[in-house]
Design a protein that fits this description.
9-stranded mixed beta sheet, 6 helices, 213 residues, alpha/beta
Length: 213
């Protein structure tokens, strides 16, 4: 039987300098904290982080990031100070646009056309497209080397279900990376998740953290 369960040490070994890493969650809800700890323990630096906000602040404050692409800096004083420090590059993107850029990356679309941000700093340096008499900002799709996500339940093959705030950005991030690593509340045998209850099919999942291994 195919099993995608891996030990903590095996997951730590997946991280290295220079990677682009997407992290799920928002305002620390639905964030894969155990996987973020794995990145920190790996010692990887010069990373690019793509996320809705700074829920991966543990890595940011440890100096692991050279760049962040985010929609929201939150309200935590030390996070705001770090984001505005100039120690690393920060690209702000409207949240809905950021989510759609990630979704586009996951389905193989090169970019999206949006009006959000027109006439503001968000359009600076970006290409404009005329379509049907309307002007849009062309936003490029986003992908990553590794996606770190939090789900509620996984079977051995990596089929996932989510509850509550785990649904915020984790399902779209799961599809937008070369390698997707999952932290879950419960791992169940293959067959226990019915097809109609599967939000992320196992084809998108490469590794599941199993703390019992």
């Amino acid at each position: 039987m195919i099993s995608k369960r891996f030990s903590r040490d095996e997951i730590i070994a997946q991280f290295h300098d220079g990677q682009t890493i997407m992290t799920g969650g928002f305002a620390y809800h639905g964030s894969p904290e155990l996987l973020i700890d794995c990145v920190l323990e790996s010692g990887a630096k010069h990373l690019t982080n793509i996320a809705l906000d700074v829920s991966a602040s543990k890595l940011m404050l440890a100096g692991c990031f050279d760049k962040m692409i985010i929609a929201h800096a939150g309200a935590v004083k030390e996070n705001l100070e770090a984001v505005s420090s100039g120690d690393f590059e920060v690209e702000f993107c409207p949240m809905g646009t950021l989510a759609e850029r990630i979704r586009a990356g996951g389905v193989g679309v090169g970019g999206i056309l949006v009006k959000t941000g027109m006439g503001t700093v968000a359009e600076k340096g970006k290409e404009k497209i005329e379509l049907n008499g309307e002007t849009y900002i062309l936003e490029s799709a986003l992908t990553a080397d590794v996606a770190l996500i939090k789900a509620t339940k996984a079977d051995y093959y990596g089929n996932l279900t989510y509850n509550g705030t785990n649904l915020n950005s984790n399902p779209i991030i799961a599809q937008a990376a070369d390698k997707t690593i999952v932290q879950v509340d419960e791992i169940v045998p293959l067959g226990e998740i019915p097809p109609e209850g599967c939000t992320t099919p196992g084809i998108f999942v490469d590794m599941i953290l199993d703390t019992s291994l």
